[in-house]
Amino acid sequence: MLSLHNLKKGKGTEKKSKRLGRGNATGSGNYSTRGMKGQRSRSGGKSGLALRSIKSYLLRIPKVRGFKSLNKSKATVNVGALEQKFSSGETINTRAMLKAGLIDTISNGVKILSDGKITKNFTVEAEDFSASAKEKIEAAGGKIVIITVKKQPLKKKANAEETADEKVAEEVEKKQEKKTK
Fold it and tell me: Is the pTM value of this prediction over 0.85?
């Protein structure tokens, strides 16, 4: 039986290393295949100069770093999946898709794509639709409702700061009026 303790290497797989500098009878005596004189014939002389540039440094970095976009992508749902999970005449919104397990999160929005066949008529509510998905849903007798998510503008914070500044200014004016009276 073959097991780890009785494994042997195949014949001819191990190559013996050259024994350099062991006399002329070995065929590599005297100068030990290094030639005569010079930097490369001496010990430590074979390495040469190291390239110290940015390009060579970048070439050494493995190309496995990838890229992560700052823009969050929308969850995608195919028309065929809607056909399987929902019955005819239903209103399908993002929460219904989440409950059905078609998407993981609704925070970034949902886009409906056209992969698959559709025969049932749905009212589909989503943030975005592909052109062919719109055609398929409408051809099956369904409706499309595009939802627009209202995002809070950054100006509200500025307005809140302005109102706080205005309140402070009003208090200062009241104090000044009291002093003058």
Answer: no
